[in-house]
Amino acid sequence: MKNLTKYFLASIFSFSLIVFTQFALAQDPNCEITKVNGGGFTTTIQSVVNNCDGTYTFVLRVDHDGCSGPSCKELSHYSVEAIPGTYSNVSVQVLSGGMTYTNIDLGPNLGSDPFQGFKVDGTDGIGGGQAGSFTITYTMTSIQNQRASAKAGTDPQMVTFNSELDFTYVMNCNNTNCGVDPDTDNDGCYDIDDMFPTDPARCYEIAGNWGTLAYEDLWPSKGDYDFNDLVCIYKYTSVYNAENQVVDLKAKYYITAVGASFNNGFGVQFDNLLPSQIASVTGNILDKGYVTTNANGTEAGQAKAVVIMFDNTESILNRAGGSFFNTLENGFVGTSDTVNVTITFANPISAASLGSIPFNPFLIKNGNRDFEIHLPDKLPTSLADPANFGTFEDDTRPGDGKYYMSDNNLPWGLHVPVVLDHMIEKIEINQGYLKFGNWAQTRGANNPDWYLNEPGYRDASKIWEP
Ligand SMILES: [Ca+2]
Ligand SMILES: [Ca+2]
Ligand SMILES: [Ca+2]
Ligand SMILES: [Ca+2]
Asked: What is the pLDDT of residues 374-408, one digit of tens each?
């Protein structure tokens, strides 16, 4: 977009220039400028290259559409305006049709033409019902306003090209100015930086680190508090455009433990986003039929954008045996598929408006869409049944801004920004992670690093290992 910015600034006092620039950008995806000579002839600035030695190489393409009749005469010569002493190396190449010429006249005086320059003289076989195309390549020591005449009979059939709006535009659009790095897709993100060099919507991506989400799945009952009923590690990668706005959010999820009898689902609410701000969702696993989606792949019936990443764990797990997955001492050890979900936004958005990782993830209890289990103090989605709040051990009080915690502030969902080693089945988490209890009951004020492997932080004999 650097060219657009430049032209906008250059043309800020001229409405007509703004209109022209928009036309050029909208109508010339190949970075060319075409003008109509008349009589079936057009002239196109095909390229302008700054040779970085004080010279520029220009290529004009002349096309005739094959029209015939009194207003479509055969070409007699083709003249190009240029300041004497500034041009050299004029050559012609026939691209199509049967055009011939007798010589290239380097002028500078061109007889009947009203300007100085050079011409392709004694042309034959193009115009007057004969379609054809040829290019004129020439070198100049500056970029100038240039007229070009497709002379047929007495009709000059003249076009006028502007040094800035036409020639310089084509040069910059093609990134053929001196010292400019190539930008193949012209998105303002140079090829050397562009991880998507042929995709003008995308420039680079930044991958986050693996983190862990762990759940107790008997909410609103406390359960055994081993926090391994679903343990899912995640990694988010944001894809940015050249304006540093997020185009796609790519998520990876991998299940490390299911110490549960329930077959749970998992989704993420983007609290700052409306469903309409998402263009598409791909890669999520919806096999059980209880999740209804909008056309864009977000969950239907939601006020905020919600993506169900998988609606059950069994579609993803590769069990080695047994009913507990990677939570029993000396038990079977299974693997998980990696769920790769790509969310593409309807319009690129700022990273700040997307919200912070891990957003608002939640467990769906055993295929019952009424029961969501969120991280502490995260809001439920539109589909959670609020009748479950405040029942059993849950002490959710929306009026006080308290969600998904017990009366002594114990959560049902955990997030840590590292890969968490989970508990052995049916052993409370605070027996393996010795600082956990103080962290939870102070609502995170104390021991925010409870999950680290520091001296005195763990009883490793209570933590599962393969
Ligand atoms: Ca690029
Ligand atoms: Ca790109
Ligand atoms: Ca449990
Ligand atoms: Ca368990």
From this structure: 999 999 999 999 999 999 999 999 999 999 999 99
Output the CA 193–ligand 1 centroid distance in Å.
Answer: 8
Please give the radius of gyration of the chain, using alpha carbons only, rounded to the nearest integer: 34
Domains of the chain: 31-173 (2.60.40), 204-462 (no CATH)
Cα of 426 vs centre of ligand 4, distance in Å, is: 6
- Of the listed ligands, the closest to the CA of 422 is 4
CA gap 199, 186 in Å, rounded: 9
Q: Are residues 222 and 210 in contact, defined by beta-carbon separation less than 8 angstroms?
A: no
> Which structure tokens are listed for 179?
């010292």
CA of 322 to the centre of ligand 4 (A): 14
- CA gap 156, 451 in Å, rounded: 82
> Which residues have C-beta under 5 Å from ligand 3, the single-atom ion?
216, 223-224, 226, 229
pTM: 0.68
Q: How far is the CA of 331 from the centre of ligand 4 (A)?
A: 14
